[in-house]
Amino acid sequence: MHGRAEHTKGKLTMDDLEYNKLGRIVSKRRSKLSKQSFANNPRMKARSIAVRNAALKLRATGKLKSGRQALQQINKEATRLLEERDRLGIGVS
């Protein structure tokens, strides 16, 4: 976004683009749709919270492996947490 190009390969102009929270340049339209779909999908929100909690739990116990195994481990723990939440009938907070 230094003003050197008129548009992107997909013909998006500067007015169509914005920075996301990670500092990447993204489409305003696509970003807005993604935020809306996340806000309106309680299962997606629950999954996000479960992944965060699983990672925190595994790091705290010192059982977190490295690399690809860590992602698989976090995913497995998050799935377990979601199944437990469903079994207990707990809603999304």
Classify the beta-strand content into a percent band. Answer: 5-15%
Number of helices: 3
* Spatial sequence of strands, sheet with the most strands: 1-2
What are the low-pLDDT stretches, counting only 5+ consecutive residues below 50? Answer: none
How many strand segments? 2
Give the biggest sheet: 2 strands, antiparallel
**How many domains is the backbone divided into?**
2
Oligomer: single chain
C-alpha Rg (nearest Å) = 19 Å
> Given the C-alpha coordinates, what overall shape results?
elongated
Order of helices and strands: EEHHH
* Helix-strand makeup class: mainly alpha
Report on this model:
The protein folds into 2 domains: 1-40, no CATH class; 42-88. The chain has 3 helices and 2 strands; from the N terminus they run E-E-H-H-H. It has helices at residues 28-39, 42-61, 68-88, and strands at residues 17-19, 25-27. Strands 1-2 form a two-stranded antiparallel sheet. The longest helix has 21 residues, at 68-88.
Which key terms come to mind for this protein?
mainly alpha; elongated; 93 residues; 2 domains; 3 helices
